[in-house]
Amino acid sequence: MKTLRADGLETRARLKQAAQRLFALRGAEGVTVQEIVSAAGQRNNAALHYHFGSRRDLLKELVLDGAQRIDARRQAMLDQMEAE
Questions:
Q1: What parts of the chain have a pLDDT lower than 70?
Q2: If DSSP codes are grouped into helix, strand and coil, which group holds residue 54?
Q3: Number of domains the chain contains
Q4: Is the residue at 53 inside a domain?
Q5: Contact between 18 and 36 (Cβ < 8 Å)
Q6: Would you state the pLDDT for residue 5?
Q7: Measured between alpha carbons, how far is residue 16 from residues 49, 58, 78, 84 in Å?
Q8: pLDDT by residue (tens digit) across 36-46?
Q9: In whole angstroms, what is the distance from residue 2 CA to residue 14 CA?
């Protein structure tokens, strides 16, 4: 993975947040790169390609992020049940 400056991390996070919201509203196939980039406050489509490679790779990362959050919650619930 590329080493990103702090503002690069913020841009990456904004792109992910914008994409997640738009995908939730219109589905993964109903959103363009330009719409994601604009919603994230960026001016250039290259921002998405720089940070993720492609719209599809961004979507994969969002799915992975969601799976990790679900797994962390599941593990916490199992730990709580075990403690009880």
A1: 1-6
A2: coil
A3: 1
A4: yes
A5: yes
A6: 56
A7: 12, 7, 29, 37
A8: 999 999 999 89
A9: 17
